[in-house]
Amino acid sequence: MPKSEMNSVQAVRPTPLPQELVHKHNKDEVLLTGWRELSPQCFEVTARWPRDHSFYLSDQGIHDPLMLVETVRQLLPLLSHVAYDVPLGHQLIWDDFSYQADPEALRARDPHTEVCLVVRCDSVAGRGGRTAAVLLHTEIFRGGERLGEAGTRFAIQRPAVYRRLRGERGDAHRAMADAAPPALPVPARWVGRTSPYDVVLSSGGAPGRWQLCVDTGHPALFDHPVDHVPGMLLLEAARQASQVAAYPQPVVPVAMRTEFHRYVELCAPAWAEAQALPADAERRSRVRVSVHQEDTVCCSTDVTVERVLTSASVLADAGSVPVLSDSDPLAERRRPTPAVL
User: Fold this and answer.
1) Shortest CA distance to 72 belongs to which of 117, 12, 17?
2) Crossing angle, helix 65-82 and helix 231-246, to 10 degrees?
3) For this UniProt entry, which residues form the secretion signal (predicted)?
């Protein structure tokens, strides 16, 4: 990046953003703080990462890479509405998503971290000249330090088109009411979590296989009614599956590459399956996590992880992982059912 462009990144002044521009109901879930246009295809967007976020934790001294992902996800509606004149009420649909992050650069040093995203977009025009899809690439900085990068392609659909596509399943309030109750979660420590209410995996009856544990009352993953399992929950499932594979060693998902093929419905069980992949060029472990529903692959995520060298890990109490062998299903049934928050 040219030095002049980096200086402009550091000079961005954040301003509050209305939550509807990032498709959130709870203003406390809004991470973006401001934006400005550099050119018709290039933008600077500021964000604030709280160290004490209720879901995207920093308990290992490292900002959760999924907070980076959520920050980029919020870019999609923001730039669609303010830069491409997409009306509120249109549906944004992920085709694919990828990111890479530097775990050392993600070290949490302050109560709040101010970050800046340099965004480049290529739009695809549809009928009537309205934007129908966007290719987005962003680099994320803290001051002059590069934290990582991300890229995605997403489609934009008018409400009438979305209703035809989804049919009866497109009614968000009905889908939430008809959602299957959440399955019993695996122990939080296996997936790098401190609370059972944040676990999105349940025992699946076979090694490397889990049922999705979908709690529609979760305040972060279900900030507002939706008609399908959110993409952020699917990415969280991939992260948690990669942590189970590494247990008891804590790991950080330093990279993900996801392809979305179809919606995961709320009314039927869905299953996550993990498959080990060859290590990358830096000898980091990799795993592919696929989500299936009704014998169809809905999405597939390749996760690259790095070990966390810290004594403050939530996984400090090492032990075997019964979920991989289902050796004690009765013990799992004795665990409390997650409440609707």
Assistant:
1) 117
2) 160
3) none
Structural domains of the chain in order of their starting residue, each with its CATH number: 3-157 (3.10.129.10), 168-333 (3.10.129.10)
Helix, strand or coil for residue 66?
helix
Gap between the Cα atoms of 144 and 83, Å rounded: 26
> How many C-beta neighbours within 10 Å does residue 206 have?
13
**C-beta of residue 77 within 8 angstroms of C-beta of residue 146:** no
Per-residue pLDDT reduced to its tens digit, 170-228? 999 999 999 999 999 999 999 999 999 999 999 998 989 999 999 999 999 999 999 99
Dist CA 310 CA 314 (whole Å): 10
Whole-angstrom Cα distance, residue 263 to residue 166? 9
Helix (H) or strand (E) holding 236: helix 231-246
Phi-psi region of 23 (alpha: psi -120 to 50; beta: other; left: phi over 0): left
